[in-house]
Amino acid sequence: MPPIPPLFKLAIEPKGNITCTQPSQRVYLLTFDSAPDNRLTPQFCAAFLLALDILDRRFEKGIIVTTSAIPKFYSNGLDFESAFKSKSFFSESLYPLWRRLLTYPMPTVALINGHAFAAGIMTAMMHDYRFMNPHRGFLCLNELEFGASLKAPMSSIFRQKLPNPSTYRTMVLEAKRFNALEALEEGIVDGLGMVPEVLKFAQEMALVDKAKSGVYGQLKAEMWRETVAYLEDHARNEEILQERMQEEERLQECKEKRVAEWEKTKDHNGVKL
Fold first, then answer.
1. Could you read off the pLDDT of 195-211 as tens digits, one per residue?
2. How confident is the model at residue 264 (pLDDT cuts 50, 70, 90)?
3. Fewest CB within a 10 Å sphere: which of 64, 98, 103, 213?
4. What gap in Å lies between CA 191 and CA 234, rounded to an integer?
5. Across-strand partners of 140?
6. Do 114 and 67 meet the contact criterion of CB atoms below 8 Å apart?
7. For residue 239, what pLDDT is reported?
């Protein structure tokens, strides 16, 4: 089968790209190729956002499918150097992309072909549906392992979308790596397969026609209001986080004082220190 000619291709500096093809009528496949593992850099986010805008403004309404040209990875999350070097990364790069996906006026499907870790699986969660390669890859929130906290929208999207709260507990507090079958059983993904299976799913669900009435994005904005609000008010979320950290420092001092006072007593109730 000859390769499908691209509708357009966008550069991801310094050497990557996003290619848009149309494997079926009104099914738009966005394929990332930003070596080595599709990190969510400002350049990646900008190209992804532009691709979504082009499809929204210049093409007939249908369905968006995103995947990776790198077999091992869908996305390995943030590039910490570029993410934290710029104070505006979250408010001007990552969160606008996530909000656009979450409220996009057409159905969106993340075709997770390989590993999706941390912000990579978060990006997939911003899609309406998720399909996973049954033979390769893990889904994991591994912030616990590298000592990073979850910002408000990073947490709320799982609270809102996962059918079972215990699944999110396992993801966050155990950093469990879910294979495809486990992810399907826990409701993290909606199906298993690659492009043919996604096309069959889209046909069975009549997804290409869902955007015709013009309210698809509005309905999603209301469905996911909590996460949308967090994405839109990053500054206030950071203020709350700072207030929480300051309060935690105060509480730590109180705890230390109580324990120190206990240690000064002659009788530790039989506890040997």
1. 999 999 999 999 999 99
2. confident
3. 213
4. 32
5. 117
6. no
7. 82
